[in-house]
Write a structure and sequence with these properties.
7-stranded mixed beta sheet; 21% strand; Aldehyde Dehydrogenase, Chain A, domain 1; alpha/beta; 6-stranded mixed beta sheet
Length: 448
């Protein structure tokens, strides 16, 4: 097996990498364990200095890194640049704030002194997806290193160059050997890593199916696990919403990164009173998107095939194709920017995550029906609500079953806010102080 880097715009092979032999994998695990033993004894200032040096290198290599993501998984260059910038922000944020996030918490008890301390676990494995090849890794890596752990990376097989580039950043910044290691390993080897006693936690971002398997493996080996899985995020538009603003954000929220975003808006739940107007405005905007210019190709051929199968199933179930709903002929893995109307509970487009540039329009009778429809999913990652009444929007947000609800804004990850889902969208949290504490030993210390 090899890890093949292919350009999804024309399917050309860029580079390939061999699978890591088991003997070398064992050496990498031992080195990561040794690095963790050393790193836990460092001061926050030393850890932060390393993160700042990494951030500076990210900024210096900004265009090079963005070009690599553009070529390897198809992301538009402008989108890739934004992703790279966000990684530097995460490094600087945790370098500055980690010590405060992990400071001892004094607890008043009958003891002369009692406190909670946050201490590193050791080596942590990250199994990461291709859709944000840098950001997904750095939102794990920055807090993990600042907490005093070492990090192992099993990246998606179609972004091996991005994986190597990130580890090179750490090496060039002066990271100790084994502190951040890239592993070109298959799923069987990943299972071995999870079971290895030198590994103390697992962070996974990806599909629900894979997340269930990894969660089961971690549980069987009594390893701490954080799972950020799929979503079918509702985008609720109420009668009093600013439709032009809602449509403008809807286009970005659904079609950025070719729709290949876990927190992309996927089900557009629109109240009947304005559904026709919203739909007409959305169609007009989406018609202007041009594959290869304003919308990227999908990352792989199999992903496009799976999306198209879901679209065809939805149409057979009664969904109305308003736009696109077909692969784009010619080179590359482009899928036409698409809209399905009349999507209802029980249809494929309602029940499943459509991980590509397809918007599903769902009609709601009223606000309460919109909440019921929003929650009628096994997923619970993000949601947004569009209304002129922000108090009503916040009240509705409290009724939505999701890890994040945005009122009059696009759902996004922010290093200052916890990120993660409920139900089939995963467990645990990334980012903010909640994320850095996930791979810490929350230790109670009692002095009589």
């Amino acid at each position: 097996m090899t890890f093949a880097s292919r350009n999804p715009a024309d399917n050309t092979l860029l580079e390939s990498f061999p699978l890591l032999p088991n003997a070398e994998l064992d050496c990498a695990l031992e080195q990561a364990a040794q690095a963790a033993a050393y790193w836990r004894g460092t001061r926050f200032s030393e850890r932060g200095a390393l993160l700042i040096r990494i951030a500076e290198l990210i900024e210096q290599r900004r265009e090079q890194l963005a070009q690599m993501a553009h070529e390897e998984m198809g992301k538009l260059l402008t989108e890739a640049l934004g992703e790279v910038d966000k990684c530097a922000v995460a490094c600087r944020h945790y370098a500055e704030h980690a010590e405060g996030m992990l400071q001892d918490e004094l607890i008043e008890t009958v003891a002369s002194r009692s406190l909670v301390s946050y201490e590193p676990l050791g080596a942590v494995l990250a199994i990461m997806p291709w859709n944000f090849p840098y950001w997904q890794v750095f939102r794990f890596l920055a807090p993990t290193l600042m907490a005093g752990n070492s990090a192992l990376l099993k990246h998606a097989p179609n972004v091996p160059r991005c994986a190597a580039a990130m580890v090179q950043l750490a090496v060039d910044a002066g990271a100790p050997a084994g502190l951040f290691t890239n592993l070109y390993i298959d799923n069987d080897q990943a299972a071995r890593v999870i079971a290895d006693p030198r590994v103390h936690g697992v962070a996974f971002t990806g599909s629900e199916r894979a997340g269930r398997q990894i969660g089961a493996l971690a549980g069987a080996n009594l390893k701490k696990v954080v799972l950020e899985l799929g979503g079918s995020d509702p985008f609720i538009v109420l009668e009093d919403a600013d439709l032009d603003q809602a449509v403008d954000v809807a286009v970005r929220a659904r079609y950025s990164n070719a729709g290949q975003i876990c927190i992309a808006a996927k089900r557009f739940i629109v109240v009947d009173a304005i559904a026709r107007e919203f739909t007409e405005k959305l169609v007009a905007r989406v018609q202007a998107l041009k594959p290869g210019e304003s919308i990227a190709p999908m990352a792989r051929a199999d992903l496009r095939d799976e999306l198209h199968a879901q679209v065809k199933e939805s149409i057979a179930e009664g969904a109305v194709p308003l736009l696109g709903c077909e692969p784009v002929e010619g080179e590359g893995f482009y899928y036409a920017p698409s809209i399905l109307d009349n999507v209802k509970l029980g249809m494929t487009a309602f029940n499943e995550e459509l991980f590509g540039p397809v918007a599903s329009i769902v009609r709601a009778r009223d606000e309460q029906d919109a909440i019921v429809l929003a929650n009628a999913t096994r997923f619970g990652l993000g949601a947004s609500i569009w209304t002129a009444d922000v108090e009503k929007g916040e009240a509705m947000a409290r009724q939505i079953e999701a890890g994040a609800v945005f009122v009059n804004a696009q759902v996004a990850s922010d290093v200052r806010m916890p990120f993660g889902g409920i139900k089939a969208s995963g467990l645990g949290r990334e980012l903010a102080e909640h994320g850095i504490r996930e791979f810490c030993n929350v230790k109670s210390i009692w002095v009589a």
